[in-house]
Amino acid sequence: MLQIMHLFWHSTVPTILFPYILIYDKTYDDIIRRRLLIDGDGGNDDKRINSLLRMLVRWCNMPENDEESHLTYQRMLATLAQCEYNMEKSVLVYEMNLTEQKKYEHLNQDIEEKISEATSKIIDCKQELQEAKRIRKNRQEYDALAKVIQRHPDRLETTKQLQELDKELVKLKNHKNQIQEKLDLRRKQFHVLISAIHDLEGILEDDEKKEDMETN
């Protein structure tokens, strides 16, 4: 833009335009002054841009070989460089925030999946526990029946029934042991999963604290 204005300065512009530029310069001073009062401490980039435009208008009204003209030109370059730096910095911060947002979204999705998996395993454990209770009840009933049958040991049929009941009891005991082992394994897996979820929540809290500290 400065190069364009430099060409504009050296071009054959009708001298009738320069009075309007001077009037615009004074009017623009009032606009800048009101804008600064409204913005306060914020809007630094807007202030720099407004200051740049203001210097540009003044620079256009200065003699070509004047030292002040050269200094104003250098100030405009410095102000423009600062604006470009702030713009690039804002873009980098925006991209960093997007990356962090995606990271937290993936982490939150993983936590939700872990919670869903843990809930499913808890339901399975409850069902297996109900099955174990039913087996225990059946075993108690079989034990009571076996005691009744044992009162008549002289009957062959009773003996056969006892043998069948004993076999069934052995099967039930084995089945119960298998279910108990599964329950123990599920409990261990559940505790590990809960610990992992707590660790993930701790990581999230630490990241949020770090981000708050960096933001402040």
From TrEMBL:
Alphabetic keyword roster: Coiled coil, Nucleus
Subcellular location: Nucleus
GO biological process, one term: mRNA export from nucleus
The keyword Glycoprotein belongs to this UniProt entry's keyword annotation: no
Cellular-component GO terms for this entry: THO complex part of transcription export complex
Positions in coiled-coil regions: 101-182
The keyword Nucleus is assigned to this record: yes
Assigned protein family: Belongs to the THOC7 family.
Descriptive protein name: THO complex subunit 7 homolog isoform X1
